[in-house]
Design brief:
With about 180 residues, the protein is α+β, with helices and mostly antiparallel strands. It has one domain.
């Protein structure tokens, strides 16, 4: 091989490697940007669903009449959790109870949860454990005590919730 051919080939290999690196970086950035928009869109959907539940919970508290609401979680596997008082990150500061819709069971990601506080007791009802996959969960807080919350896993694209008042507490459970 002559020197011109080796130089020409080397130059094209370097250009090809640079092109591949630039393409990989562009694909990475596109995936990251898409992920950000998807997560924001999921939180918007979760917020709308939580607002529907909050409206019915307040109505049930006022009228004491059982009611039902259909919710559409952003994805299956999101959860609906209640806390007996302030959420560990003070999400519902000063309220009697806190209702959150979250991407994970611990409600640990602030970018993937939406919460609403109530001046009265609100609690998810765990009657249908085998059906909804609910479980009690303990979360350590800054002051070294645990907040026990109850979680309903929203494992269907459409979940019908029954909301009713029982012993001064508004309860939420999934309808089979």
């Amino acid at each position: 091989m002559n020197k011109k051919a080796v130089g020409f080939l080397g130059e094209h290999v370097v250009n090809l490697v640079i092109t591949v690196i630039v393409l990989v970086l562009l694909i990475y950035l596109i995936v990251k940007v898409y992920g950000i928009f998807t997560q924001e869109n999921e939180l918007e959907k979760a917020t709308i669903q939580l607002e529907k539940i909050v409206e019915v919970v307040n109505k049930v508290k006022e009228t004491e009449e059982e009611s039902k609401v259909e919710i559409f979680p952003p994805k299956t596997g999101w959860s609906l959790a209640t806390f007996p008082f302030d959420f560990p990150q003070a999400e519902c500061r000063g309220e009697v109870s806190c209702l959150c819709i979250c991407e994970d069971l611990k409600c640990s990601n602030p970018k993937a949860r939406k919460c609403e506080g109530f001046s009265f007791g609100v609690k998810v009802d765990l009657v249908y454990k085998k059906y909804i996959g609910s479980l009690p969960y303990a979360i350590p807080t800054e002051s070294n005590y645990e907040v026990f919350n109850e979680v309903l896993i929203l494992n269907k694209p459409v979940n019908e919730l029954k909301i009713f008042k029982e012993e001064n507490v508004v309860k939420i459970k999934v309808v089979e």
